[in-house]
Every structure is written in C-alpha cells, then in structure tokens.
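Dataset card, provenance and construction

Sequences and ligand SMILES were collected as paired inputs. For each pair, a complete structure of the chain with the small molecule in place was predicted and serialized as structure tokens. The example below shows a pair involving nicotinamide-adenine-dinucleotide. Curators did not alter the output after generation; any descriptive sentences attached to a record were derived from the structure itself.
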Amino acid sequence: MKLAVIGTGYVGLVQGACFADTGNHVICMDIDREKIRALKKGTVPIYEPGLEEMVKRNIQEKRLEFTDSLKNAVQNSDVIFLCLPTPQSEDGSADLSHVLKVAQQIGRSMNDSKIIVSKSTVPVGTVEKIRHIVRKHSRYPVDVASNPEFLKEGTALQDSLKPDRVVIGSRNKKTIAAMKELYEPFMRTGNPILVMDERSAEMTKYAANAFLATKISFVNELANLCGQVGADIDLVRRGIAADPRIGKLFLFPGVGYGGSCLPKDVKALIKTSAENHHEFRILRAVDEVNEEQKKILLKKLAARFKHRLKGRTVAIWGLSFKPQTDDIREAPSLVIIQSLLDSGVRVKAHDPIAMPAVKARFGRRVAFYQSGYDALKRADALMVVTEWNEFRRPEFGRMKRLMKHPIIFDGRNIYDAKEMKERGFEYYGVGR
Ligand SMILES: NC(=O)c1ccc[n+]([C@@H]2O[C@H](COP(=O)([O-])OP(=O)(O)OC[C@H]3O[C@@H](n4cnc5c(N)ncnc54)[C@H](O)[C@@H]3O)[C@@H](O)[C@H]2O)c1
C-alpha cells in the first residue's frame, strides 16, 4: 500500500518505519526541515532502541522516504496517517490547531480519493471535524478514521511490532478492510483488532491513559500514607499486585508521572467532561495528587536540612520522564531542578541520554556530567529521579567517598532501605 505519515515524531516515525518494514511504501512528512534532512541520511533524531537500524534498512530498500512537502506526501499515497502533536492548551483542552490546519491542507492537495487516519490523541468528535474540513476543501471522496496509538516511548518499536491491541474507529467497510490489511502482519500472536465507531475509539485512548494515571496517583497516595503510618509500600504493593484483578504493572510509587501523554490527556479528559456538564472528580484528584507528588523529594530534602538549603549541592540522577527515552516533556525532574535553583541549591545532573534537552532549558544554571559519579563530587545529597538501569547497582563505596554527606533521596525506590543503611547511607525512599 502507498502510505503517508504526517508528523514524523515518536509516533509517526516509529509507525512509518514499521509499515515500511512490512512491505508498504511510506512517505514520512514533517514541517521540521532539519529533522527531514537528518532522516534522509538515516539519522534518527530521537532515542528509541532499534529504530535507527529499521529506518536505515527501509531507506535502503526504497520503501521509506522523507519529505517536507505535504502535497508530495498526499498525492503519492492512498492512506494518510496523522501523527501530529495535540499539546495541552492553556485551558487544559487538547490543542487541535496542527491537526485541523493539516486537514485543510490535505483537502487542498488531494488528487484522488483518500483514507485519512488520525493516530494523534484527539477528543471525541475530532474525526468528524477533520472529515468536514477535508470535504469542504476537496472535490475527491475521502473517509476519515480514528486509530489511536498506544505505544510507549522507550519500547515504541516493540509495542508497534507486537501491539496489545489495535483500535480502529470507522464504520466504512473499505477503510476497515484497508486498516486490517495494514495491521494484520503485527497481530500474528492473536491480539485483537477492535473495530468500533469513531467516537468510542477516540474515547478509548483517553480512557486508557486516564486509568494508567489513576493507578500511579493511587499508589503514590498510598505510598505517602505508608510512610506516615510505618508501613512499607513495596511490601503492600506486592501484597495487592498478586491479585490478578489489580495486577503487577504500573503500580510503582515515585515522583509523579510525566511525559508527553499522561499529563495532557488527563487534563483534556477533565476538560471534555466539563464541556459536557460532567465533573470527572476522580481525574481531578489524580491530577492534583500528581502535581503534589513531584514535590515529594523536595519536601524530604527540606525537612532533612531543616529548610536551610541555600548554598547546598544536590546531585540528580535521571532527567528523562522515564528510562529508555530522551523525552523530558513534563518530566518531574524539571520541577525538581527549578525548585532547587529557586532555593539557592547548586544542581549537578547526570542522565545517560536526556542531558542535551535539559541543558537547552536550564543552560549554565545546572552543571551536567557525563558520569554519574562526577556529579556526586562534594554533593550534600543525591536525588534519584529516573530509574535508568545503570543506577541500580552502582559502586556504593565510591559514591560514599565522593559525596560530602552520604544522603540519598530515592524517588523510584530502586535501592533496598535496609541495605543502604548497612552501607552507611542515610536513605529516604518513597513510602517506606
Ligand atoms: N509519544 C508517545 O508516547 C505517544 C503515544 C501515543 C499517542 N501519542 C499521540 O500521538 C501524537 C503525536 O505525538 P508524538 O509524541 O509523536 O509527537 P512529536 O512531537 O514527537 O511529533 C510530532 C511531529 O509533528 C511535526 N509537525 C508539527 N506540525 C506539523 C505540520 N503542520 N505538518 C507536519 N508536521 C508537523 C513536528 O515537527 C513533530 O516532528 C500526539 O497526539 C500524542 O498525544 C503519543
């Protein structure tokens, strides 16, 4: 099939590469010329394990092309995937300006009938809006479907090659058949392709992210209570996770959820609810708990140093919003760093991948180190903010020798509290 992918970011590039890998011809389009220039040479501008090899292979096989011309992408494809950003607007709703503008441009560029598929996370009713706009600007037949994306940054390639499920929101037989043909190679393990109406498909994506965010805020609240009453969240978590109705995944306490999806999608669903005269009370609490949770390590640090923070030095390990990605959008580390700087603390940071992005934001106000150990020199305390694997089994003796005070605030509970005390560290976890 001839496909176009509009928006070559985390979702578009991964999905475009996967579709090319199963034999389709894919043109990835982006307005970012720098990105397109790099991609044409096979340089992948984001960190996603395995992606660069797949992109290079498919460029070589001439199945994957890149362009900054929307017209070129539209006119040389039958199915057009929208993988455009839908960031948070000031009022919390999803900003649809990119999607709706592109819909208009596609309408104007069409040279034949097309299927347009929204992979962007968009509020209920957006597919109908896109259909209306494209039809207004084109004389060719068009169908628009919803196909929400569920990949996770860091494992995006694996998630796309073996999705848990594919959701197709369409009532058009031709569109459904084309989508099934595209996705069947990825569904050999028997995971379902779920066909439903557009509105239900659009809501499914928000429902999934809202539920995941709820799990995180629930376990964070529970952890904070455990800390107060002398229970250990790690034991409690295991105790509840053994029940299959609760499940083991996504039940880890920490410094709050971040990233480009959960925060904005929770807020957008709250907004959709309000617009429909429905107050989604649970989600409001989920959002509030999360904002508070980003400050949990700061509160512990302030209490430990009796609020005398000015002139202290704090090392931070981990900046991306989760391991295996360079994405820092809405990362708790940003709130933590800003607050430390506001309190007059010197910040020394290390992350295996995400330092350039944080440097672009804070510049020389933060000192960055290629080695986690270098960041520890003369530090009054260490904060572990992202649980990269390399932080799990460090040389504790070396750490202790480098630090001014061997104090660790473990925002991801990656260390064993008892073991850390035995090693001579003053240790603070979350909810234990
Ligand atoms: N990142 C994720 O983990 C993830 C997972 C599931 C769903 N989503 C959703 O998918 C959508 C895309 O997310 P993303 O993370 O890939 O975003 P991204 O910011 O990584 O990529 C979006 C790309 O679109 C390009 N773009 C912006 N305006 C454009 C235009 N007018 N024409 C062409 N290109 C344009 C940008 O330059 C950028 O490269 C969002 O709605 C997001 O909520 C993201």
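Derived descriptions for this record:
The radius of gyration is 23 Å.
The longest strand covers residues 2-6.
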